[in-house]
Design goal:
Strand content: 25-35%
Number of helices: 3
Helix content: 25-40%
Structural class: alpha/beta
Strand order of the largest sheet: 1-5-2-4-3-6
Shape: globular
Radius of gyration: 25 Å
Order of helices and strands: HEHEEEEHE
Length: 137
Amino acid sequence: MNTNITISTYNLFASWCLFTVLGILIGILVLNDTDEATEGEAEGSAIYTVTAYCPCEICCGKWSDGHFANGQEVSFPAIAAPSNIPFGTKIHVPGYGVAKVKDRGGAIKGNKLGVYFPTHEQAKQWGKQELKCEVLK
């Protein structure tokens, strides 16, 4: 039996296994990156302009019908976020807490969020703030 041929065959097989496993792992990483990019979801911390609002006509205009953009009845707490952050995503807003995205808004684009309050007075007290918020998965 020729030992050199046996060792060469073994090395070839080991190399093939290694490259196959690496190829699969790279494929998984590429697919995961592609999935996240196509969903357009934001994740992580960023500085947001956070403005408070309530369900009144002053804050919501003709959309003050007692429902959020996701169809649910208004309830505290809730966040209005741009469309790249899906409904149901949890966001931590310092001083407000963790709440789910339930609403959209005409002015809610880019790094802007709205935080819902039950009364106009509470919304006025919160006002508009620049805050480092965290979009949670």
